[in-house]
Design a protein that fits this description.
The structure holds 2 protein chains of 2 kinds. Chain A is 77% helix and 2% strand. Chain A contains 21 helices and 2 strands. Chain B is mainly alpha-helical. Chain B has a single domain, classed as Helix Hairpins (Orthogonal Bundle). In chain B, 74% of the residues lie in helices and 0% in strands. Chain B has 3 helices and no strands. Chain B starts with a helix and ends in a 13-residue tail after the last helix. The model of chain B has no long low-confidence stretch (mean pLDDT 91). The chains are: A mainly alpha, B mainly alpha.
Chain lengths: 489, 106
């Protein structure tokens, strides 16, 4: 059984193997600048293997390969997230060449850890069983803790400490919830849990089951940085190396939503009334807290941190919509997946521009971004377009993402939630536009040109072209998303 | 034979002590120990459920034990990482009091 199923794990195994090769290369090679290309090759291998698995799925019916006695599944949904996570990792690695020189001795470790975190996130998207979900979650969390601490200055260590303690607490609470669910249903496999919940009717009314579900939301809510588990976000974004913050905001959020969709879809499908309301309330609170506190921020990384909390809220509107539909495969899931792709391109664009600008002007304060448009028009334009997309204006990806999510909410009678979302989009315009105004209208502190290296510019161009492409031709991504969702149930 | 309720109450009590410790302690190491208590409470739960509720001979018979072993392993990795970071914290500011870890706020 095991050797036969092993090929399902090939992308993750290849990624872990390449991570180890990168560490060894760091030990042996004298030239540190070869590590980034080597890690990019290391990312290409799992991408190729995922494509092979995707093609294999096309030829079989039903389009899903389950392995390891139901612990792990390869379907379009998990492969979709693997591509998203690997793509985000590749862009982050391309953009971090200059930042990496600050880690002096630990450059190989940076690339290896970021690849291992990606491996954990890919497993999260594919796990269909509570033990493997927990292990995958911790693999990505622990790698992230080490990544945040890599700068080794006071802020970086402080951020890493806060992240570690909060992550450990939230995963302990989540485990307690998983133990309760296991005790009530007698299984940790999501499909078996769902079976037990529908066949034994008195289980649904058990308060312990509801407690278990809420505890599980704690663990996942931490990953997607939703209120009230958001306390770590601004501190970690400010203290961590900027590429790590970029990586966290995109990949970790995507993996978190993947695992939420799978768990609540497959296992707790019969409890939709309870968790849909919970997610609706969390979404509303996350949007308000994220957007209102972001207004007061002076540090651009902190501002993007609060903005990511608000966007977790926007995506959770889609989750609330799923639950209200009764039947699960509606516009809610598709809107979430679309939002995650759009958000990945948008937020990576914003963060990569911030990496380039902040490392040159040696400041992360928004006021110091004065006149950046004159010092480097390309970087300023890229940041401005990304911020416009975060705001949700056409012709960018953010517009369609928000439209889809609000649309899903309105179709399922959650008009009040859609209204709150629209109010929040207006609030968010204030602090995003302020950055654009500072860059374009304020006089620069010096006329010296801001330069950036070629890989970073390429990564930035890919992100910006990506978000404009999704904004102008949303149908392409929508088709992919529909395929990905199709195999879920 | 001892009923399962005793184990569940024991586990809930240990979990609550752990939560209290996390909230009330100021020393990073003691917070870490409190988190460890929370994880051990989960393990007691898992093993009690596995022993009392899963019928013998089923595929899931030992699932609770296996889960507990994974929890123990990952907790060990977590503590290793945490101690490294606490050590670094101590070198940076000669204190492991979490109230003083306050460079970044709001």
């Amino acid at each position: 059984m095991f050797p036969a199923d092993l090929y399902l794990l090939m992308p993750e195994l290849a990624l872990a193997g390449m991570a180890i090769i990168v560490i060894l290369a760091d030990l042996v090679l004298k030239r540190r600048d070869l590590l980034a290309p080597l890690s990019l090759i290391g990312l290409a291998v799992p991408v190729a293997l995922s494509i092979v698995l995707w093609l294999k799925l096309d030829s079989i019916d039903p389009h899903a390969l389950s392995g390891f006695s139901g612990f792990f599944v390869v379907d379009y949904f998990s492969l979709f997230f693997k591509f998203l996570i690997l793509g985000a990792t590749a862009l982050v690695i391309m953009a971090s060449r200059e930042s990496v020189t600050r880690f002096s001795r630990f450059q190989g470790e940076y690339y290896a850890l970021i690849m291992m975190a990606s491996g954990g996130m890919m497993l999260m998207a594919a796990a269909t069983e509570l033990v493997s979900i927990y292990v995958a979650l911790e693999l990505s969390a622990l790698s992230t803790v080490a990544l945040i601490a890599l700068l080794k200055n006071s802020r970086s260590i402080e951020a890493s400490m806060k992240f570690l303690i909060l992550s450990a607490i939230s995963s302990a609470v989540m485990l307690y919830g998983m133990a309760l669910v296991f005790g009530l249903t007698g299984s940790t496999r999501l499909l078996d849990i769902a079976d037990r919940l529908t066949s034994v009717s008195e289980l649904i009314d058990q308060p312990a089951l509801l407690l278990g579900v809420i505890f599980i939301i704690t663990g996942f809510g931490f990953k997607i940085s939703s209120v009230p588990f958001q306390m770590w976000v601004p501190d970690v974004y400010e203290g961590a190396p900027t590429p790590v913050a970029a990586y966290l905001s995109v990949a970790s959020k995507a993996a978190g939503f993947a695992v939420i969709i799978r768990v609540f879809f497959l296992a707790f499908g019969s409890l939709t009334d309870e968790w849909a309301l919970l997610f609706a309330v969390l979404a509303a609170v996350s949007m308000f807290i994220g957007n209102l506190v972001a207004i007061a921020q002076k540090n651009i990384k902190r501002m993007l941190g609060y903005s990511t909390i608000a966007h977790a809220g926007f995506i959770m509107v889609g989750l609330a919509a799923i639950g209200r539909e009764g039947e699960l495969l509606g516009p809610g899931v598709e809107s979430i997946l679309f939002y995650l792709v759009a958000y990945a391109a948008t937020n990576l664009g914003a963060f990569i521009a911030v990496i380039a600008i902040s490392s040159k002007i040696n400041s992360e304060l928004i006021d110091d971004y004065a006149g950046v448009a004159r010092r480097n028009p390309f970087l300023a334009f890229a940041l401005a377009v990304s911020l416009v997309s975060l705001m949700g204006l056409p012709p960018t990806a953010g517009f369609w993402a928000k439209l889809n999510v609000f649309n899903a909410a309105i179709e399922t009678d959650l008009v009040w939630l859609a209204l709150i979302g629209m109010i929040n989009s207006v609030i968010s315009a204030y602090f995003y536009l302020r950055v654009i105004k500072t860059m374009y209208l304020s006089p620069p502190a010096s006329e010296e040109r801001i330069t950036a290296d070629l890989p970073l510019k390429a990564a930035l161009a890919i992100a910006v072209i990506g978000l404009l492409f999704i904004g102008i031709v949303p149908g392409f991504v929508m088709d992919v998303v529909e395929t990905a969702v199709g195999t879920l149930a | 034979m001892i009923n399962i309720e005793y184990y569940l109450v024991l586990s809930a009590a240990i979990f609550c002590i752990g939560v209290y410790g996390v909230l009330a302690r100021r020393n990073a190491i003691l917070i870490l120990m409190s988190i460890e208590l929370m994880l051990q409470a989960v393990n007691i739960n898992l093993i009690a459920f596995s022993t009392y509720l899963i019928p013998k001979g089923e595929l899931e018979e030992h699932l609770g034990f296996i889960f507990a072993i994974f929890v123990i392993t990952i907790a060990a990795a977590e503590v290793g990482l945490a101690l490294g970071i606490i050590l670094r914290l101590y070198r940076n500011r000669a204190s492991v009091n979490v109230d003083e870890v306050n460079l970044m706020k709001w």
